[in-house]
Amino acid sequence: MAMGPVSGRGGRRAPMADINVTPLVDVMLVLLIIFMVTAPLLLAGVPVDLPESSAGALDQDKKPVQISIDRDGKLFLDDKEVQISAMDAQFAEIAARSGKGKDSPQIFLRADRALDYGRVMAVMGALNHAGLNRVALVTMGESGAGGDEAAAP
């Protein structure tokens, strides 16, 4: 009888060279769902009842500056309240910090639908006067069930 490599039932098994990726895929899908649910909640800190629009979303390359006007007419720069009398100085500071032309920051203006049109136009005029011309009005989608969408300026 020759003694050769053992193969068959009682022999040694070769180590498994495959990696089981099913648990990794499961974890990644759960994380994806969590981020998809929480990302829209992190975008806006000021509660504003946005109007509806059928315009498509804008492409974003940098983080935009969020300007919000709530139902009471209070002005917020990102999540910090700004006095209406100081908005010209704040907008001029943003323009001076970031530059002109293509380097000027994208401004997302969010205004409550119950707000007076004149208040929104006063803020837009102050933005234009400061040299911030890349302004997009943020609205809800047509159904109102979707996330925030930015309408083209």
Main β-sheet description: 6 strands, mixed
Going by CATH, the architecture of the domain at 45-151 would be: 2-Layer Sandwich
**Order of strands in the sheet with most strands:** 3-2-1-4-5-6
- Specify the overall morphology: elongated
Low-confidence stretches: 144-153
C-alpha end-to-end distance: 88 Å
- Mean pLDDT reading: 76
Strand content: 15-25%
Give helix and strand order, one letter per element, not per position. HEEEHEHEE
Structural class: alpha/beta
Number of continuous helical runs: 3
Give the % helix: 25-40%
CATH secondary-structure class of the domain at 45-151: Alpha Beta
Strand elements, count: 6
**Radius of gyration from CA coordinates:** 27 Å
What this model shows, in words?
The chain has 153 residues and is α/β, with parallel strands linked by helices. It has a domain of 107 residues: Nucleotidyltransferase, domain 5, CATH 3.30.420.270. Helix content is 31%, strand content 17%. The chain has three helices and six strands. A six-stranded mixed β-sheet has the order 3-2-1-4-5-6, covered by helices on one side. A hairpin with a 7-residue loop joins strand 5 and strand 6. It is elongated. The C terminus is likely disordered.
